[in-house]
Amino acid sequence: MAWSNQSVVTEFILRGLSSSWELQLFYFLFFSVVYAATVLGNLLIVLTVISEPRLHSPMYFLLGNLSFIDMSLASFATPKMIADFLSEYKAISFEGCITQIFFLHLLGGAEIVLLISMSFDRYVAICKPLRYLTIMSRRMCVGLVVLSWIVGIFHALSQLAFTVNLPFCGPNEVDSFFCDLPLVIKLACVDTYILGVFMISTSGMIALVCFILLVISYTIILVTVRQRSSGGSSKALSTCSAHFTVVTLFFGPCIFIYVWPFTNFPIDKVLSVFYTIFTPLLNPVIYTLRNKDVKDSMRKLSTSIFKSRKTDHTP
Fold first, then answer.
1. How far apart are CA 221 and CA 251, in angstroms?
2. DSSP H helical segments within the chain, as ranges?
3. What is the pLDDT of residues 226-256, one digit of tens each?
4. DSSP output for 79-147
5. Which segments of the chain have a pLDDT < 70?
6. CA–CA distance from 250 to each of 12, 243, 303 (Å)?
7. Mind listing the pLDDT tens digit for each residue in 184-200?
8. Gap between the Cα atoms of 214 and 220, Å rounded
9. What are phi and psi of 152, to 5 degrees?
């Protein structure tokens, strides 16, 4: 590719989470289990939403798409990180590094728009219940999902527009388990202050502003819910609480990492692990524990799959 010829560095070395062989072996086993649980948990939600007719509503349609994004977010770097725990030479090509950065910002941008869409869905359902099905039509839901991917693509391309042309001619060690943009541009052979400001304005501040707007939105929703005392309002409160928990878990580490991209905090690596691995795992747990419809549908799907396999093995 044309842009790879502009850099002397052809690969980056990922320093990972630890240099201790014992810890790396523990991390290998631990994150293998976490990654498998993340993929299976989110995949189960996607299959449940698709197969269960009573979950064919706007809220669950958006939830299924969120699970797909979370499954992808957990997969853009985690499999390589797990493999690197058993390798002494933890290298990634320049192209591979740029690809990781692209997918991180693509999926992150798409998830931000999708979380805003889910907030809008709850607002309409609680504050304008009589117009809910009219406003949140199938066309609107599909449009919101398509918009989330479009925004994600444009956001990722905006982050890479200048990064791919930076000259990398010296240090090539990235102090993380994947190629995170703030850490990679620090290795460039030129002053990256302007690029850093650009990154803050398009990543950190966008995340911060969106989080504040979501907090305001859910506050309005919760105030409306608290003014009611019916069982339906109690269910709405539980659903919104789960949504707000997911929003906080997603935006918290993202804001901390990208609002101060050039300050090196020891907790940065922990937040990166949480943001890319644990948040996608916690999302299905939070939604299933707080939502009786999803739990019942998952139980029904699991029973159906088990019975089907048992029938197949019956002579």
1. 19
2. 21-51, 58-73, 78-84, 94-127, 132-135, 138-163, 181-185, 193-199, 205-226, 231-259, 268-273, 279-289, 292-312
3. 776 555 556 666 667 777 777 877 777 777 7
4. HHHHHHTT-S--EEEHHHHHHHHHHHHHHHHHHHHHHHHHHHHHHHHHHSGGGHHHHT-HHHHHHHHHH
5. 1-7, 200-201, 228-239, 257-268, 289-290, 305-315
6. 27, 11, 32
7. 888 888 877 777 777 76
8. 10
9. -60, -45
Return d(Cα 202, Cα 194) in angstroms, integer.
12
Tokens of 179: 């190629």
For the chain, domain boundaries: 12-297
Q: Please, are residues 116 and 65 in contact by the beta-carbon 8 Å criterion? A: no
Q: Which CATH class is domain 12-297?
A: mainly alpha
CA distance 241 to 290: 9
Could you give the CA distance from residue 7 to residue 165 in angstroms, rounded to a whole number?
A: 8
Could you tell me the CA-to-CA distances from 172 to 17, 55, 195, 264 in Å, in that order? 17, 48, 19, 17
Only one residue has tokens 């692209």, namely 102
Give residue-wise pLDDT tens across range 264-294.
Answer: 555 567 777 887 888 888 877 777 766 777 7
